[in-house]
Amino acid sequence: MTARARRPVIGAGQARRAKVQAAGYVGGLLADRGAVLLCGGRSGVMAAACRGAAQRSEISPGLLPGDDVLDANPHRAVALPTGAGHARDAVAVLAGNAVGGTGTLSEIAPAPKSGKRVIGLRPWEAHDARSEPAAVRVAASPQEAVDLALGTGSPGQDGGT
Fold first, then answer.
1. Residue 59 contacts residue 78 (beta carbons within 8 Å)
2. Phi, psi dihedral angles at 37 (to 5 degrees)
3. What is the CATH number of domain 6-149?
4. Three-state SS across 99-150?
5. Most buried pick, 1, 58, 119, 156, via CB within 10 A?
6. What tens digit of pLDDT does each residue of 108-154 get?
7. How far apart are CA 123 and CA 100, in angstroms?
């Protein structure tokens, strides 16, 4: 049996409409390609991504920061209370094969350390200590974000990083 691709989508609980819409589209695209969506399981970007996956009858486990399953958004298929607060972000990132979204650097920091791709969909601009672009691939659209996360993006489509 082959393991299915696991893709965490990280993002704000309160986000602008464009980011929420894009997250819903990403959730649906991941589901269409057979990937399991992992997320924080609550509101905003996380709820939108879960909704996109759920509309395609896809499983979307939500890793909740607290210990109450009732904190989960209504679109997640599985609510997993961790009681770990923000540390649950590291669990989501490390459980995935690549990470995408608009989350904070602290949310995605474990990914490059463990050799996982990071795909930012209209993210902030990140630089390392030498003012060089950080190892974050930038996607211009939900389709490109999913292509990069699943390793099907063409060279040069990732913003040059």
1. yes
2. -85, 130
3. 3.40.50.450
4. EEECCCHHHHCHHHHCCCEEEEECCCCCECCCCCECCCEEECCHHHHHHHHC
5. 119
6. 788 888 888 888 776 665 555 565 666 677 788 899 889 988 887 65
7. 10
DSSP state of 39: B
What distance in Å separates the CA atoms of residue 7 and residue 97, rounded to the nearest whole number?
6
| Per-residue pLDDT at 135 | 65
- For the chain, what percentages of helix, strand and coil (3-state, to nearest 5) are there? 35, 20, 45
Q: Which of 80, 76, 102 is nearest to 92 (CA)?
A: 80
Spacing of C-alpha 34 from chain mean position: 15
What is the DSSP code (8-state) at residue 78? E
In angstroms, the Cα distances linking 43 to 21, 33, 143 are: 13, 24, 22
